Amino acid sequence: MAETPDQRRNASGERGVVATDPALPPTAIDEEVREAEDRKWTPGKIALWAGIALLGGLAWFMLAIIRGETVNAIWFVFASVCTYLIGYRFYSKVIERYITRPDDRRATPAEYKADGKDYVRTDRNVLFGHHFAAIAGAGPLVGPVIAAQMGYLPGTIWIIIGVVLAGAVQDYLVMFFSMRRGGRSLGQMAREELGVIGGTAALIATLLIMVIIVAILALVVVNALGESPWGVFSVGLTIPIALFMGVYLRYLRPGKVMEVSLIGFVLLMAAIVGGGIVAETPWGADIFSLDKVTIAWGLIVYGFIAAILPVWLLLAPRDYLSTFMKIGVIVMLALAIIVVRPEITVPAFSEFASRDNGPVFPGALFPFLFVTIACGALSGFHALISSGTTPKLVEKERQTRFIGYGGMLMESFVAIMALVAAISIDRGLYFAMNSPAALTGGTVETAATWVNSLGLAGVNITPEFLSQTAANVGEESIVSRTGGAPTLAVGLAHIMQQFIGGTAMMAFWYHFAIMFEALFILTAVDAGTRVARFMLQDSIGNFVPKFKEHSWRPGAWLCTAIMVGAWGAVLLMGVTDPLGGINTLFPLFGIANQLLAAIALSVCLAIVAKRGTFKYLWIVALPLSFAAVVTITASYQKIFSSTPAVGYFANNAAFSKALAEGKTEFGTAKSVAAMEAVVRNTAIQGWLSVIFVVLSIIVIATALLATARAFRNRADGTAVQDNEDPALPSRVFAPAGIIPTPAERELMAEWDKVPAELRFERGGHH
């Protein structure tokens, strides 16, 4: 099964062919064996993929072409799953074969830089869980819910097609290129690949955008847990559960992943059920009913501690634990949709699809739908995780396709399920929940009157309906519960109670969903903080080299404190925002996130060009072009639009004028303090938008220049600088995907016979 060096050189096409240890079995599957397995098409296999393609085509036909008065929700499940399977099996394979060209004979940073803290070889399934949990934050839950204002079809197309051609491509490429560079951060890679100007612009942009993104993620957690003793108790318990799992897997029962998973799952279920019991007691309601500012401070402290603890102790087990919860709930929701088959009455394109004054979020379908739905289709935040914690934990190069491309497809499925949950509830209820209190009036009577005045087809809700819905889910009120999370919880409870338990179980399902969402998002907050620390250390390390040593504790603690302080300040601004925080900050989050995606794809473009893969450069250029056009257009409108609801500076001018005229309330602000807060917030957001878009344009321009230079150098025969770490021989083997192939199982059996002292030992590369 072993190969000769010549075969290896031909297979990988890379420099740095590494010699394997003759005392060990091969560290990779023979390329010819792998190719033969991959290309073996049996009649059964052909029939399976033909069936997947036909079912997917039928589902898309039902969603996009037929479009009767109602559409059955099962078509969303079939259209998404079939498209994901085809994208993963065929499109990601093209990227692997012609762009990344992984070589499992090379050691990964987790092997040659192992330190027991940040660089730790991690089982591929556990790492998939960590990566998925870290990338799947507020975005796939909140964005699709808010974007449902436009109807179901625009969001569905963008989420499913966008992820296959853009989001998953970005995540996979960034992870692979970072892994080949010792796990370096996106900003540091940009500095090396794009030069001083482009690299510096990318470093500043990524740091600033990271602050905004983590703050928004934390804000959604605060909104979900505010005055919710059930949620606070249950989410709080996940921290000691994760610590126990980390110690169990590290010291008590090393390698027993399935065992610790079952224990964690049982404890997690106990935490959810226990939260409901505790919340019903007078003392529980008193202790765990926390206001939003208190929860925000708690998150700030948690973010600091989580980012400095060893990755194996809290971050990886917590993310793995929450992945069970996340994927389990989403799969359960998908099964419930297939069984219940709810009819969707929301039109494919709503009344607000052709207007820019929607009550849930202002702005036209293009470009604002594509920045409102970021995570789930294309997200710059993922590039920071893919160049942050994950590449430092990967065992083998080939696993990056499963973790990077596959993890993003899973997140896209979460976004589709969130969209279906949001559009499955009554349309009037949707607008009553997602519009700010300044419009709804905050009471069931005023909200019902306002929603009915919108003139939506087939919508006529009553105060009694809103009150009954709140009672069914065990809440005081569901009017103006903005931010997307409560709407998703109501939608999930609405579908699940038809599947299990009936109306009597709605309160349980609602709080289960709130707990699920908070857990979902919290994992992105702690992973995001850790990545932000890596980024700042890399940036300062350009001037003070000692900071580049991630294991140097003083540097790690200082950089963590700076980044937590920065996003904490933005979080507190959002919590005290009179416009509901999330409604004001989410457009900035969306634009910043997609600008970051454009930066990440720009860096990938330059790297792919330098590797000489010009024939397949379009795989990166296509999503980069779309992201650049969308985000620059959206930024332009947010900066220069004269409509106060859309333009930051127009809004700022309107409120400043009202204050100068001595008014005590204006528009959505009902006090002078609230008016002053709007003026302050819009000024900050406006100038941040200007900074973000200018930096992004600089990065894109320098990436295009670097690409052109690489093309010219190849034509001239000039050597192109390679910034990859030197290739070192690997001394371990692990399968590439979730299920080992026959050849991989055969090689694993060989490795099982190798004495432990001959293998790679923790603590260094021997």
Output the keywords.
766 residues; mainly alpha; 2 strands; disordered N terminus; disordered C terminus
The gist of it:
The chain has helices spanning 5-12, 31-38, 43-66, 74-100, 109-112, 124-135, 139-147, 153-180, 186-225, 229-252, 257-280, 282-288, 292-308, 315-340, 365-372, 380-386, 399-424, 427-434, 437-440, 444-452, 463-472, 485-499, 506-541, 553-575, 582-610, 618-640, 648-660, 672-716, 742-752; strands at residues 71-72, 343-344. It is an all-alpha fold.
Written account of the structure:
- The chain has 29 helices and two strands.
- With 766 residues, the chain is mostly helical.
- A two-stranded antiparallel sheet has the order 1-2.
- One of its GO terms (biological process) is cellular response to starvation.
Q: Characterize the biggest β-sheet.
A: 2 strands, antiparallel
Q: Give the amount of beta strand, in percent.
A: under 5%
Which spans of ≥5 residues are poorly predicted at pLDDT below 50? 1-17, 761-766
State the distance separating the first and last CA atoms.
24 Å
- Number of beta-strand segments: 2
Classify the helix fraction into a percent range: 55-70%
Secondary-structure class: mainly alpha
The average pLDDT score comes to 87
Q: How many DSSP helices?
A: 29
The largest sheet has its strands arranged as 1-2
Radius of gyration: 25 Å
Principal-axes geometry comes out as: globular
